Write the structure tokens for this entry.
Amino acid sequence: MGSIIKVAARPSDDHVVLSVSDHGAGLTPPEKSQLFNRSFRGDRHLKAIAGSGLGLWIANAFVVANGGTLNAASQGEGFGTTVSIQFPAGCDADGALSEHAHD
């Protein structure tokens, strides 16, 4: 059940990409096609792993509402999964932070 989790951030053109990768169960093509649907849980996980199937649906709604995209990639069952969030990099973080330094 345990898997190493890798978190990475990188620039990509005019975007910032945040990725979370594991070496776990991976995704089958039918799972991948439904992954961001509300309350979707793959048959392989229904009894073995607790959850409501809302996590990626909520994450996707949040990311899209903030101008980004959320994607999942997997080589298939047993090969792990990488979920990536891509946001526009149009913000001057230092300026934004210094504006609120005294709030």
